[in-house]
Structure formats: C-alpha cells, structure tokens
Automatic annotation (TrEMBL):
Lineage: Bacteria, Pseudomonadati, Pseudomonadota, Betaproteobacteria, Burkholderiales
Domain Aminotransferase class I/classII large: 35-388
Family that this chain belongs to: Belongs to the class-I pyridoxal-phosphate-dependent aminotransferase family.
Alphabetized PANTHER family for the sequence: AMINOTRANSFERASE, ASPARTATE AMINOTRANSFERASE
Gene source species: Alicycliphilus denitrificans (strain DSM 14773 / CIP 107495 / K601)
BP GO annotations: amino acid metabolic process
Known cofactor(s): pyridoxal 5'-phosphate
GO MF annotation: an example: transaminase activity
Protein name: Aminotransferase
Length: 394
C-alpha cells in the first residue's frame, strides 16, 4: 500500500514505546515484585471535579448533544474570556476565542491557517514532539533551535534573529514547556515577539500549562503583548479533562473567520457534551478545587526536584510550572554502567520498576543526556520512587 509522503514524514512517538514496555513489564511481574511506578505520564492524576461531571450528566440527560457552532458555544467563549480577565487581568473578547477539540486541534488549525508548503517555523529544542509534526502535516518545516539552561531551555530573541531565514514564517513557543516545565522570562518573551513582529512573522504560543504556574514572575499570559499573539490553551491540564478533548485558541480578530472555515470543514465542532460540562469549570467551587490541586502539584515539585538533585539527576533549571522535571542523567547512567538517556530509562524500568521518559522524542540537540520525569502522581508514589532510586544510584 502506498502512503502519502506527508504521512511517511511523521516520526514514531518513542514515548509510547517506553510506555508500552513499562506496561508489559508491570504485567509480567505483577504480584511477584514491587508494582511499577509510572512517572512517564503527561496528564494530571486527577479527574474533572464533581460540578463538571454533573454538568456532563445533565447535558446527556437533557439531550444537549447536537453539533454546536464551529467556534464553540457562545456561553463557553464568554466564560473563557471572563477567566482571562479574572485570573490574568487581560481583556480577551469572546469573539477572538475559538473552542477546539483540545490544544491538539487548535495547533493543527493554527498550522493549516498560517503555513504554506515550505514555510519554516522556529521552535526550541527540546519541545513537545507533536508540534514539529503539526507543522510537517501542514507541509511546513519545523526548525529546531538548540537551547541552553541559561535560556531556560526556551528560544531567545537573539536566537530567533539569528535563525530567521527567507522562508521563516514565525515561531511556535510553549510556556511553561513540556518537557522542561520552564517558562520564557517575560522580558525575553516580549523581545522575541518584537523580533518576530518586525520581520512580519507570527508568534504562536502554547499556554496549555499556564494555569499550572507556581511562580508569580512567570504566570502571565502572552496575550498581554498584543492582539497579534496567537495563544493555544486547553481543558486538559489545569482543568484535568484530558480525555474530554476540549481546548481553545485565541486568535487575532482577522483570523477568526479563516479558522472558523477550517474548523467547520475539519471538525464541525468540539464535543458538545464536553463544552456544556466545561461551563462548570468556572464556578467558584470548581476553581477552588483546581487551586487546591495546583497547590498539590507545587508541593510535589518542591519535594521531588531537590530529591532528584541530591541523587545526581541534576535539574539545571527548576520548573516554574507544569508537572515535569528535565533532568541530566549523565552521572546516574554512569553509575548504572549504561550510556545515554534511552538506556538509562530502560535500566531504571527493569531494576527499580520506575517508568520515565528518555529525551529522544523532544529533539536532537542534547536529548541523549536528559530524561523527563512527570510528577503527575501521588506524593506517596513520588517518595517511593525516590527511595528506589536512592537504593539503586544513591
Ligand atoms: C505542550 C503540549 N501541548 C499540547 C498538548 C496536547 O493537549 P490536548 O490534550 O489539549 O490536545 C500537550 C499534551 O501533553 C502538551 O504537553
């Protein structure tokens, strides 16, 4: 069977290979050895709070299951607009908000709306693997720009200027980032956007983890920089609704109708049931629960990052958001007699029953040295993970 060159270009998601191996091993040793601890998971270990689940039940019971407008329920767009005002002090009119099937659909719509064949998009190395595939699926070319710890593993204005070429269309950023949990310093972000704007390019920023920010210095939306910033967001992370497939994007006014046309054709609309349920995310009771959970994520970070550092799994930049730790495993791998993050991850899986993610998916620059730990797991499991690593490499 012949497949499109576009489909052939998409690389496998190695994270899934590791996850499959971990699940296989967990089944094999069930009952005979200590259970596998999964620190490779990129989603919250919480589910949607009660009001949201009750709203979903109600939507089903009342038969609110027809298609919605491609841009999403007006009431939900208004609620999201209200959230930007209340939480970030930024005025984002509902008419610029497009509700999508997760951030994934928003990223695809942004790429399809903005990229022509051969256009280049600059993004940091390391970054979320799907981003370069979204660009590639739109026949564009993702240009991975190696970053350093000093840059918080993010692009800098100087690097954007240096990497900008005749075919560059813009930048695709994520703040806080997956896999590092680090945000772009606000001043640097402003300079990046100015450099992009001066070259007639576009700034797309994935703010899916912005709700899970733990430091006042970083927890601000890039939408404050101007109407020309495109921000991607989602109900998956802060709102704990990964499987509900619901997200949104904020676009410049002039882009709304283009995205609407694409969304009508490609998706018709995001899940109607999820949209009705998501209205309840913004009730005071739900926000209080989300804030309690955010504090829990922060407490896990505050326990786990120093513990990793003590184990010689150095985290060069403390994460200020999300639930990840990007750790240098060079020294720890040597202690286990292996080389590189891929072998280190498998060794940890076999010998300590700990599943983590090797850096390989996230780029090419320095990813053989780094692994990603997810702290989206209970404090008890994180403590047990540290004890097992201590026994093995401490
Ligand atoms: C940085 C980033 N962007 C986008 C996504 C996709 O999220 P969604 O579930 O909203 O499609 C993820 C999921 O892990 C992510 O980490």
């Amino acid at each position: 069977m012949k497949f499109s060159t576009r489909a052939e270009r998409i690389e496998p998601f190695y994270v899934m290979e590791v996850a499959k191996a971990a699940q296989g091993l967990a089944r094999e040793v069930a009952g005979t050895r200590e259970p596998m601890i999964f620190l490779n998971i990129g989603e919250p270990d919480f589910t949607a709070p009660p009001l949201v689940r009750q709203a979903a039940d109600r939507a089903v019971r009342d038969g609110l299951t027809q298609y919605t407008n491609a841009l999403g329920l007006d009431e939900l767009r208004e609620r999201i607009s209200g959230w930007y005002a209340a939480r970030f002090g930024v005025n984002v009119p509902a008419r610029r908000i497009v509700v999508t099937a997760g951030a994934s659909a928003a990223l695809q719509l942004a790429c399809l709306a903005l990229i022509d064949a051969g256009d280049e998009i600059l993004m940091p190395d390391p970054s979320y693997p799907c981003n370069r595939h979204f660009v590639s699926a739109a026949d564009g070319r993702a240009v991975l720009v190696p970053t350093t710890a000093e840059e918080r593993f993010q692009l800098s204005a100087a690097k954007v200027e240096a990497a900008w070429g005749a075919r560059t269309r813009g930048v695709l950023l994520a703040s806080p980032s997956n896999p590092t949990g680090t945000s772009i310093a606000p001043d640097e972000l402003r300079r990046i956007h100015e450099a992009v704007r001066a070259r007639g390019g576009i700034t797309v920023i994935d703010e899916i983890y912005l709700g899970l920010s733990y430091e006042e210095a970083f927890g601000h939306t890039a939408l404050a920089l101007g109407e020309d910033v495109i921000s991607i967001n989602s109900f998956s992370k802060y709102f704990n609704m990964t499987g509900w497939r619901l997200g949104w994007m904020v676009v410049p006014e002039a882009m709304v109708s283009v995205v609407e046309r694409l969304a009508q054709n490609l998706f018709i609309c995001a899940s109607t049931i999820s949209q009705h349920a998501a209205l309840a995310c913004f009730e005071a009771e739900s926000i209080a629960e989300y804030e309690r959970r955010r504090a829990e994520f922060k407490a896990r970070r505050d326990f786990f990052i120093p513990a990793l550092n003590r184990l010689g799994l150095t985290v060069p930049v403390p994460p200020d958001g999300a639930f990840y730790a990007w750790a240098d495993c060079g020294e720890a791998a040597r202690r286990l007699g292996v080389q590189g993050s891929w072998d280190f991850a498998f060794e940890l899986m076999r010998r300590a029953h700990l599943a983590i993610t090797p850096g390989r998916d996230f780029g090419t620059a320095d990813t053989a040295r780094f692994v990603r730990f997810s702290t989206a797991n209970s404090m008890a499991q994180l403590q047990e993970a540290v004890a097992r690593m201590q026994a093995l490499i401490g």
